[in-house]
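Q: How would the structure tokens look for this protein?
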Amino acid sequence: MARRGSFTRWLACAGVLGGVTAACNPSGEGGGESSSGGAAVATGGTATAGSAGAPATGGMAGLGGSGASAGTSTVIAQTLATCGVTLASSLDIGSEAVPTALTGLAWSPRAQACQSGGWDLLQCAGATVTLATGTTTVMHGTHPVDVQLWIRDDTVCCAVGNDGGTPGWVPMSCGPGILAKQTLEQCGIGTTGGFHVQQIPVPAELTGPNWGIKDTTCDQSGWDLGRCAGSTATFTSLAATATNAQGDPLTVWVAALGDTVCCVYGSDDASAPGIYPMSCPRDAG
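A: Here is the predicted structure in token form.
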């Protein structure tokens, strides 16, 4: 259930590229197109073979003197590779103040594109964060498609494309929320609304009233939270359609380390300890 895929496929699925034949699968399953050895890149709307994880021409090499930290440079490179993006030129590394409320014409379309691609721009809300902007090898007519990444504390909050239109934001379906949504779909767990992503350190020893209970709950439903132990894991939360025995709404959580789902569990705010098992085949993650 890897999120790796082709940037061109995201654009084709969004209706940005004309004349591109690509399997439209915005959920991110299955990697890149099957016709060539890597992801496809487009020139003037025509797909040609490329390499999804290829080094950018004058791209990532330009990060060293950009002021980006080593950690930020690493997560940018990993994200571009995961999303199948090849740069045509060096990235511009700057900063941008992200408002607390992602509303209005300036921010609402960006936030929506992020959510559609499995990203959570709210992770960057209310802070001045790193903004990486680059021109890709993909062309939309005569206009090159740009990629933008917002990074806070070496965590990518969102990666989107921009085709130069209005509003022009194109979802890149390679964010961590995609894995969570795929898992919940396979588990048959219904959700409503958007999702929220958090990076949470999981202790090596899963004991006590917090992690010990979560570990036991995960074991009850066939998951292994120990796969995330000792690491900073991605926790994606969504409002579940299920309720507890008292009819109180549940939040469903998907804990993952990279592309490995460690556990799916539910929680509520109305009881103690308020942690509930969510049964699902382990191989769904």
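The chain has two domains: 7-174, 178-284.

Helices lie at 7-13, 70-82, 104-116, 176-187, 208-220.

Upvote if useful.
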